[in-house]
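Morning. Coffee machine broken again, so started the prediction first thing and wrote up yesterday's gels while waiting. Chain of 197 residues, entered below exactly as on the submission form.
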Amino acid sequence: MAVRLTRAEQVERNRELVLDAARRVFLDQGYVGARLEAIAEEAGFSKGVVYSQFAGKADLFLALLERRIAERAELNARVAAEHAGIEGLRALLVANTRREAEDGWARLLIEFRVAAARAPEVNARYAALHTRTLERFSEAIAAILARGGLVPVHPAPVLAGLVMTLASGRVLEIAAGTTPVDVEVVVDLLSRLVEPA
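Came back before lunch.
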């Protein structure tokens, strides 16, 4: 006998199906190229169902970004719990670089960031989420360094911002087909920005 979902469960299930479909379509077609019609079709719904869950394409992308931030923070916290010091920082950077290379999300996020910069309300929502990302990433960095008896020369959020800036640059260099800065070079540079506690 099939179990009947409550209205709230059905709404949540539909939301998850739309989010999963949106992720696939965005990664395949890019942010600018993705259309809500294609996302609805991929999810097996009408466009009306998508609009019943999300205000538009930017709202849908930002919901995906929120999910991604939570997933990344959880993975980074695991790395931080298992590693310490400069070697821990290396492990964190390698794990993040591997994730960026695996799924194409980093390149998609850069595309979204450029589009969002032209829409003040969307950009403000993105900036709030990015601030959360920086906070969580800086917490992971600070924990790794502290467990190794180190502190950053600059505040951990500055170090986290530098890492993220370098990561975005790496993604763009790879997209252009040029040689990106190697992770070991980044680790070497960052190791010069820490000192004993």
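The CA atoms of residues 94 and 183 lie 7 Å apart. Going to sketch it on the whiteboard this afternoon.
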